[in-house]
Every structure is written in C-alpha cells, then in structure tokens.
C-alpha cells in the first residue's frame, strides 16, 4: 500500500525539477518522505537558451524544506557526462544513499524534418536521450556495486520521461519524437539489466500543461471550474507510486498518464502476417499480398493516439 512516508529515509534525484512536471514530482517524492536532490540547469528558454541559473532549483528545494522536508539544489547539466556523475555523487555525499532517479529534464527545438538544422537535432537528442543515459549510467553503476557488496538486491527505482510523440509521430518534432522513442528503448534495456540487483526501470508518457507544452495544448483550455486535467499534479502521484516499495514488481513498463487516467501500453503487436508460397518473396507476391492490405489506409489512422486515449479539444 502506498502511504505517506513510504519513502522515508530514501534519497531521490529529480532532473529538470525547477519547474512544471519536475517540480511537481520533486514535491510529491518529498511528501512521501524522500530526501530530494532538485536538479535543474536553470536556463529560462524552453529551447535551452539563456543564461543558466541556480534559482529554479533553489526555489523548489526551499519549498520542500519549508514544508518540513529535506532537499538540496543542484544546477548540473545532465547532458554533460561528467556533471551527471557529479549529480549522483552529490546525492551520495549529501545523504549517504541513492534510491530513486527521476529523469525529466528536456528542451524543445521544434521544426519540420526538412527544415531542421543539425544543431536543433543534436541539442534535443543530447538533453533528452543522452541526459537520461548519463544519469542512469552512474546510478546503475552505484546500485550494481552496492548489490555486490551487500550480496543481494538493493533498493533502486528509475522513472524515465518519454512522450506520446514517439507513438503518434509528432510531425513537427522529429528530434523530440526520436529522443523519446530512444528513451523507451533505454528503459526496457535497463530494466532487464538491473532487475537482478533489485532495481526497477519504467517510463511514463505524461500530458501536462507546462511551459514546454504551452503550444501543444493551446486549444485545450482549463475548465472554468474544477481541476485542470492537464495540471502536472495529476502526473506526479504515478511517479511517486513507481518510486515506492509498492511498485517492486513493475519493471520495463510504459505508462501514459494525465488527469484521472493511467494507461499501460503494450509492446507493439503483429497487425497481420503474410507467408511466401515459395522459398523467397518476389516483388509480385509482395504486391499481391501487401498492397490490398494497405489500400485506403492513412498513416495518421495508425497513430491516432490522442483519440484512442480520449484527448479532444473543447
């Protein structure tokens, strides 16, 4: 059972925690009793532009302390391999342990694929996908060494942040969609590698109204009364659950979450299967089998994830 205090004595790192989703997640983990290292590089632009600042992380850490929790701020750039290592060491040096890693940091540099520059591609993949790998690498190395020293499994939780953009093929975000798809692959690979050490690794695809998504959800106005279904606070309880002892058997999973809804996604299934009548397929045989199957289908029909999961304007 998930109870307040279920993370008492545990230490959590949350990246990109100075605003939005990361802030809500850090506050939720602290509410559950965790000591939190609040990481945020602090650049003001959602594209990663502007001068880095310690202020966003410091504000959230102060907010946690004011509520009676324990927190320290960290301004490291998780996309930098060495600084990601410093972040993990800071948690260990400050609190003597690391139990939870929530990878949330990211930037947006949207452009259609035919207009995107090399830097726009590289920078988004660097922050999202490489940033997830960097922190995971150092946390995983720590937990593996701790398990070997203990002679058995230890406590470890990784929660990664993917996006439905990788499922729905977000047309103006080829860099973001590719990075988020890569995060799913990183998650499932890490889940298999670390399970024997007692570490679970899962990914979420959150929908929330933040500065990162102000354009995406421009047509989805908050209700005049009642809670906003796109408030980050709808997402953070799932992160708290996945970080908790209650989720010890949840591993390698991908979950979509927003106001009042959690959907567990299955691995891709086989839509149809065709066998050759001979030893090898010929062009003519493939044309005869596949062309009728795809006739009249639009790629957009396959990826209507927003309709399937109930997100509509109005």
DSSP summary: helix tally = 10
Class by alpha and beta content: alpha/beta
Rounded to an integer in angstroms, the radius of gyration calculated over CA atoms is 21 Å
> What would CATH call the architecture?
3-Layer(aba) Sandwich
pLDDT averaged over residues: 88
- Outline, from the CA principal axes? globular
Structural domain tally: 1
| Low-confidence parts | 302-314
Instruction: Give me the count of strands.
Output: 8
Fill in the CATH topology. Answer: Rossmann fold
The sequence of SSEs as H and E is EHEHEHEHEHHEHEEHHH
For the largest beta-sheet, the strand count, sense and barrel status come to: 8 strands, mixed
Instruction: Kindly report the spatial arrangement of strands forming the biggest sheet.
Output: 3-2-1-4-5-6-7-8
CATH superfamily: NAD(P)-binding Rossmann-like Domain
CA-to-CA gap between the ends? Answer: 36 Å
Strand content: 5-15%
CATH class category = Alpha Beta
Structural commentary:
The chain is of the alpha/beta class and 314 residues long. It has one domain (11-265): NAD(P)-binding Rossmann-like Domain (Rossmann fold), CATH 3.40.50. Helix content is 40%, strand content 13%. The chain has ten helices and eight strands. The protein has helices at residues 20-31, 55-66, 81-95, 118-150, 165-168, 174-194, 236-243, 283-294, 299-302, 305-308, and strands spanning 11-14, 35-39, 71-74, 100-103, 156-161, 199-206, 254-258, 261-265. It has an eight-stranded mixed β-sheet, sandwiched between helices. Helix 4 (118-150) links the parallel strand 4 and strand 5. The radius of gyration is 21 Å and the shape is globular. Residues 302-314 have low confidence and may be disordered.
């Amino acid at each position: 059972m998930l109870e307040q205090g279920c993370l008492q004595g545990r230490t959590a790192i949350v990246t990109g925690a100075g605003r939005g989703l990361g802030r809500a997640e850090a506050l939720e983990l602290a509410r559950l009793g965790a000591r939190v290292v609040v990481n945020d590089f602090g650049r003001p632009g959602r594209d990663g532009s502007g001068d880095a600042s310690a202020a966003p992380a410091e504000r959230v850490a102060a907010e946690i302390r004011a509520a009676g929790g324990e927190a320290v701020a960290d301004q490291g750039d998780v996309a930098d391999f060495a600084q990601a290592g410093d972040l993990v060491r800071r948690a260990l040096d400050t609190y003597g342990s690391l139990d939870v890693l929530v990878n949330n940091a990211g930037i947006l540099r949207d452009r259609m694929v035919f207009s995107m520059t090399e830097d726009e591609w590289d920078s988004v993949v660097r922050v999202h996908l490489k940033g997830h790998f960097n922190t995971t690498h150092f946390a995983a190395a720590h937990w593996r060494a701790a398990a070997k020293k203990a002679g058995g499994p230890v406590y470890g939780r990784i929660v990664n942040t993917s996006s439905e953009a990788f499922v729905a093929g977000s047309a103006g975000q080829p860099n973001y969609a590719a990075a988020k798809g890569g995060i799913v692959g990183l998650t499932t690979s890490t889940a298999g590698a670390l399970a024997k050490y007692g570490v679970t690794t899962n990914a979420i695809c959150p929908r929330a109204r933040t500065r990162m998504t102000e354009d995406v959800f421009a047509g989805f106005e908050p209700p005049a009364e009642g809670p906003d279904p796109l408030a980050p606070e709808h997402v953070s309880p799932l992160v708290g659950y996945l970080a908790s002892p209650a989720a010890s058997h949840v591993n390698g999973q991908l979950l979509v979450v927003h106001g009042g809804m959690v959907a567990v996604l299955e691995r891709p299934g086989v839509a149809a299967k065709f066998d050759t009548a001979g030893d090898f397929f010929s062009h003519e045989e493939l044309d005869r089998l596949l062309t009728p199957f795809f006739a009249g289908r639009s790629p957009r029909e396959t990826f209507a994830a927003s309709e399937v999961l109930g997100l509509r304007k109005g």
